[in-house]
Amino acid sequence: MKPHELKELGLDEVKLRLEDLEEELSNLRFQKALGQLNNPLRIRIVRREIAQLKTVIHEHELGLRKMAGETKAD
């Protein structure tokens, strides 16, 4: 996921995407354990995307990032 794509998403969308990716990672690990994983690189990609989303959420909590749909309250 590109940084400009993350900027366009709202906080709820980011959290929903995070849940989906965590579920996908769980499924990929299960497939790996059974020896049915076709693309082992997908695990790395999903882990990286999870880290990016968690970083965006943390930055938002710290007030370093404004999400789409938010207005600046002065």
Describe this structure in words.
By secondary structure, the protein is an all-alpha fold. It has one domain: Orthogonal Bundle (Helix Hairpins). Helix content is 70%, strand content 0%. The protein is built from 3 helices and no strands. It has helices at residues 3-8, 11-34, 41-62. Helix 2 packs antiparallel against helix 3. The longest helix is centred in the N-terminal third of the chain and has 24 residues, at 11-34. The model has no long low-confidence stretch (mean pLDDT 88).
Query: Level of helix content?
Result: over 70%
> What form results from the Cα inertia axes?
elongated
Helix and strand succession? HHH
- Main beta-sheet strand count, sense and barrel state: none
- What's the end-to-end separation, in Å? 32 Å
Number of extended strands: 0
Class based on secondary structure composition and strand pairing: mainly alpha
What percent strand?
Answer: under 5%
Q: What does the average pLDDT come to?
A: 88
CATH architecture: Orthogonal Bundle
Radius of gyration based on Cα positions: 15 Å
Annotation keywords:
single chain, 74 residues, mainly alpha, 3 helices, 0% strand
Helices and strands, with pairings:
Elements: H1 3-8, H2 11-34, H3 41-62
Helix pairs in contact: 2-3
In short:
This protein is mainly alpha-helical and 74 residues long. The protein has helices spanning 3-8, 11-34, 41-62.
